[in-house]
């Protein structure tokens, strides 16, 4: 399993509300959902990074930000 990156491939900014696709790529929740809404093919939930397709958004996995607990 890949380590969660610190920035989103789509917006090139720090991950906000990070989610990963079933193929393991990380995006901001808003970025990936916006990308899918603007997709040329409604219902085509492809990973913008590798192109792996999913028939549903249920493949997204949410991970809370890592926090230092002292």
From TrEMBL:
Tell me the domain of life.
Eukaryota
Name the SMART domains for this protein.
RING
Gene Ontology MF term list: zinc ion binding
Instruction: List, alphabetically, the InterPro entries matched.
Output: E3_ubiq-ligase_TRIM/RNF, Znf_RING, Znf_RING/FYVE/PHD, Znf_RING_CS
SUPFAM superfamilies from the entry? Answer: RING/U-box
Instruction: List membrane-spanning regions.
Output: none
Which residue numbers delimit the RING-type domain? 8-50
Kindly state which keywords UniProt assigns to this record, in alphabetical order: Metal-binding, Zinc, Zinc-finger
Recorded hits in PANTHER family, A to Z, give: B-BOX DOMAIN CONTAINING, E3 UBIQUITIN_ISG15 LIGASE TRIM25-RELATED
Protein name (record): RING-type domain-containing protein
Q: State the organism of origin.
A: Sparus aurata (Gilthead sea bream)
């Amino acid at each position: 399993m890949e380590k969660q990156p610190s920035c989103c491939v789509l917006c090139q900014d720090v991950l906000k509300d990070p989610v990963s696709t079933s193929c393991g790529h990380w995006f901001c929740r808003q970025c990936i959902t916006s990308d899918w809404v603007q997709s040329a093919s409604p219902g085509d939930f492809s990973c913008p990074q590798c192109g792996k397709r999913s028939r549903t958004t249920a493949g997204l996995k949410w991970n809370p930000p890592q926090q230092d607990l002292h």
